[in-house]
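Protocol step 4 of 5: obtain the predicted structure for the target chain.
Materials: sequence only (see below). No template structures provided, no constraints applied. The aim of this step is simply to have a reference model before the mutagenesis design in step 5. Sequence pasted as it appears in the construct record:
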Amino acid sequence: MDLSRLSRWPDIEAPGLVATDGADRLILARARADIAAAPHAVVVIGDAYGALALGAADAGATGIRVHQDPLSGERALAANAARLLPAAEYRSLSLDGELTRGARVVLLRLPRSLDALADMADVISAHAAPDVVVYAGGRVKHMAIAMNDVLRARFSRLDVTHAEAKSRVLIAREPRAANPPHPTRGRSGDLEIRAFGGAFAGARIDIGTRLLLDAIPDDPAGGDAADPLIDFACGTGVVAASLALRFPERRVYASDQSAAAVASATATVQANGLADRVEVVRDDLLMRRADASGSFIALNPPFHSGAAVSDRVAPRLFADAARVLRPGGELICVWNSALRYRPALESIVGPTRQLARNAKFTVTTSRRR
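Step 4 output (structure tokens):
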């Protein structure tokens, strides 16, 4: 199939942002013979917009098991499959034993986080068939020698291809015994933090989030079951858990599209004994929330779309925050000062003023018109 026809939707579209690249094509080319030999035992991990899953289906694979960390990736795969290859057979699964049990061929896009790669490799080596072959590829500019070390710790054999089309594939065989992934642990004051591989900032509070927490008002609006305090793009759940600890009578809603973030936030909430008051959901934007249903949202927006830095990511989040906020509702947002988000916040949400600033970050509050 022609992978160039893939779309990034519902993720942002912009010049220089592509739905597939040479690494996807190289992984598929290297794995084609093994896919043909084991068409019913193919697993895809880290597929951005469906290139690997649909490429494997086009090569004859059926019943493909797929794990994509961002929910937008799952939605893009579904949309691309419906448009380009409606007969493709695949299931989207969590990063656990059901995903990789008995797998003989694994197609994997290398994540930038070594911890995320370790979690992926652990799940593969713990549950895949003894003769599994893992094709782990990426763009050379995003690869590091340490990735080889992560895979060698979990597989007895590792081969490295020559670079082609600015991409390379690491081919791992002979899995060693491994334990399932588990979160790293951290602590900040009274707060216990848990983080699975790939979750932003790991098991610590980054300086931007700390500045945001310090700027949250003493009596934010909302906090009941119908109108909870909202931690949008919640990451490891630090803001959600902090809100619940600081306001013990309030309810909190934490949302992120990343499976690793949601697993981390869930573990953080549980570690702090807050599961009865904090709801953690995986969602693309705040799609589960009704229009004008919230009075308070805290947001530390990402500025990456995959490996690419883009100034179009945050405005998409601002727009959905504005949709969810009631008139007069408050969005508190922290951002790298160099990104100059204030005009966008003014335009999309409403009147905006600065609450705090340090050498790198700015915290603003915006009132919904």
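Step 4 remarks: DSSP finds eleven helices and 18 strands in the chain. The mean pLDDT is 95.
Proceed to step 5.
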